[in-house]
Prior knowledge:
The protein is built from 20 helices and twelve strands. By secondary structure, the protein is of the alpha+beta class. Residues about 1-5 and about 135-145 have low confidence and may be disordered. InterPro entries: AbiJ-NTD3.
Amino acid sequence: xxxxxxxxxxxxxxxxxxxxxxxxxxxxxxxxxxxxxxxxxxxxxxxxxxxxxxxxxxxxxxxxxxxxxxxxxxxxxxxxxxxxxxxxxxxxxxxxxxxxxxxxxxxxxxxxxxxxxxxxxxxxxxxxxxxxxxxxxxxxxxxxxxxxxxxxxxxxxxxxxxxxxxxxxxxxxxxxxxxxxxxxxxxxxxxxxxxxxxxxxxxxxxxxxxxxxxxxxxxxxxxxxxxxxxxxxxxxxxxxxxxxxxxxxxxxxxxxxxxxxxxxxxxxxxxxxxxxxxxxxxxxxxxxxxxxxxxxxxxxxxxxxxxxxxxxxxxxxxxxxxxxxxxxxxxxxxxxxxxxxxxxxxxxxxxxxxxxxxxxxxxxxxxxxxxxxxxxxxxxxxxxxxxxxxxxxxxxxxxxxxxxxxxxxxxxxxxxxxxxxxxxxxxxxxxxxxxxxxxxxxxxxxxxxxxxxxxxxxxxxxxxx
Length: 465
C-alpha cells in the first residue's frame, strides 16, 4: 500500500497521464477508456470531456490510486521516465534500505561477463528498470558532435568492446547507486533469474556473490520457488531464516481438520471430510506474498466458478462465516480491513482467518496442555519477502478464567500466551495483539485500524501493481 504521504504525488502523475483522454476519445467512448483504468464513469451531460476526466479522477479514492496506476503501467500508456516515476511511488517502503556503499562494493565484486553474455536478454532486462534512450554526454564522443544515448554506449562498451566497462562503471551509468531501494532490489532479482541466466549453476554462483554483500544490510537473495525447472530468487530479510515457502495454508477452519498423509515420504497431506469446513491454499506463493487477487483466482479456479465477481462474493462470505459468532472483535477486524482498504485490497495481502499452524492427531487432553501452545491463529498475512504477520484479538480467556460469574486473573494462561508468542517470533512471525474491547465497538475499531493498517504496511511494505 502506498504510504499516505505519497498519494498526492501519485494522483498528480495519474492526472498528467489521463488528461489527454478528453482529446483522444469521444463523449461516447470516454467512460469505457476510464473504466479500463479502474476509474468511475461520469455522465456526458456533466461537462466537457476534459471536465469529465477531472471529475472521474476526483472520484477515485486515495486507496484505489495504486490500482489505477498499475493499470496505466499494464497498458503501457507512459514513456520510460514516467513509468519509473510511477513505479517508484508504488514501490515505496517495499524493500529494506540498501546503502550506496553496499551497492558499490557489490558492483565492484561482480564480473560483467557473468551478466552480459547475451546482448538481447541483458538489454531487455536493463530496459525494464532504467532509462537507456536518454542522451548521456561523454568526452570521447565530442568529435562526432552527437552525444550517444545510453543504449548505444552499452552496445559499444559492453558488447562490441568487451572489457571496456566494468560492472561498477555500467552500474554508474545506469544510475543504480542512486535508484530507489525497491528498484535496485528488483533489478538484482531479475539479474539472477533464468530469464537472463539460462544456467542454474551460474544463477547460484551469482546469488552467493551478491549475498556476500547484501547480508551486511540484513537481507539476502533466497530461493523462493521454481519456474520452468529453474530456481527463482527473491530478496528477503535474513532475520526470517526459519521461513520456507508455505506448502499448505489451511484456513477458514474453526474446527480441527481431519488430516492424513497419502505419501509420507514426500510429506504430502490430504484433508478429509467436508470441504466446506476448511480451505487449503496449495499454490506457490510469489514474491508479493499471498494477495487477495491470488486467493480469489485460486478459489475461482478450484471451485470452477465462471464469473470473477461471483467468486469474490462467495469467497468473502465464506471467510466471514468461519469467524466465531461470539467474537465481535474478530468480525469487526475482518470487515473493517476490507472496508478501510476498499478496492486497493485486491492487490494487498489477503487477511486469512482461522489459520491452523500446529496439527496433532491427539487431543490436548491426551497430549498435555503445553504440547501445542498455539494451534490456530486468528488472522495471518503472508507479505512480500516471506514476511508473516499474525493478528490476534484477545478476549478475557487469554488472561483470566471464569469461576461462576466472576473472571479471575490467571497468570498461567498469560504465561502460556506469551510463551507461544516467543515461539512464533523466533520462527519468523511478527505478532500483533488487539484487546477485544478495542475492536468490540465498530466506531472505535475503525479508528484503531485506520491508524494501524497504514503503519503496518509502511513497515512491511506490501507491493502494489
